[in-house]
């Protein structure tokens, strides 16, 4: 169950056999069913998850209207770092869009990972740097690109997600109504 995780971590740092055994000890398997939550608003996030299989959406609730802000899928790390790092209540929800298998790393075990894996802290820094750049680009695109341009970017960068995510969630992610997404798709022939 840890093979995909170890392969992912190995793309950032070198792991010896002892590191691999420690990873198997620290990352605990957990299953989450479709529509269940990994995190809800108001709870402090104390875990980082590696998604072995499944798909999640991050969203905020604006006066009863959920606004999708991101997606995470297999072979990616998932957490609400905005809550995790300062140990403050989450302002976001993380919900499974599919049945999922996760490998969970609790805060205490992350500290052990950093301390006991030779390049563990370097790994953490590199993942955070990637996430930071990704979310800055997404935020910039939300303000500078049209919904059609953002949709075309999604089609280009993550076409497999279009078959797995409902039109409603895609429209929410783009900041438009589902009817507007239908018009965009009709106009570009997708």
TrEMBL record:
Looking up InterPro entries in the UniProt record yields: cNMP-bd_dom (IPR000595), cNMP-bd_dom_sf (IPR018490), RmlC-like_jellyroll (IPR014710)
Xref: Pfam families: cNMP_binding
Q: Which GO terms describe its molecular function?
A: kinase activity
Superkingdom in the source lineage: Bacteria
- Say yes or no: keyword Kinase present: yes
User: Which PROSITE patterns does the entry mention?
Assistant: CNMP_BINDING_3
* All residue ranges annotated as the Cyclic nucleotide-binding domain in the record: 11-113
Work out whether the entry's keyword set contains DNA-binding: no
Keywords associated with the record: Kinase, Transferase
Which named protein is this? cAMP-binding domain of CRP or a regulatory subunit of cAMP-dependent protein kinases
């Amino acid at each position: 169950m840890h093979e995909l995780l170890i392969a992912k971590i190995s793309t950032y740092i070198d792991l010896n056999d002892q590191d691999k055994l420690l990873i198997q000890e620290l990352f605990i398997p957990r299953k989450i069913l479709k529509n269940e939550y990994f995190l809800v608003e108001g709870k402090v996030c104390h875990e980082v998850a590696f998604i072995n299989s499944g798909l999640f959406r991050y969203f905020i609730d604006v006066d009863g209207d959920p606004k999708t802000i991101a997606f995470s899928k297999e072979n990616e790390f998932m957490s609400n770092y905005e809550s995790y790092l300062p140990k403050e209540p989450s302002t976001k929800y993380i919900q499974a869009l599919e049945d999922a298998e996760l490998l969970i790393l609790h805060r205490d075990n992350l500290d052990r990972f950093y301390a006991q894996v030779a390049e563990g802290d370097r790994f953490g820094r590199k993942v955070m740097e990637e996430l930071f750049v990704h979310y800055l680009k997404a935020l910039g695109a939300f303000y500078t690109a049209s919904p059609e341009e953002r949709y075309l970017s999604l089609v280009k960068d993550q076409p497999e997600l279009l078959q797995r995510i409902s039109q409603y969630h895609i429209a929410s992610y783009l900041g438009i109504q589902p009817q507007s997404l239908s018009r965009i798709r009709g106009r570009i022939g997708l």
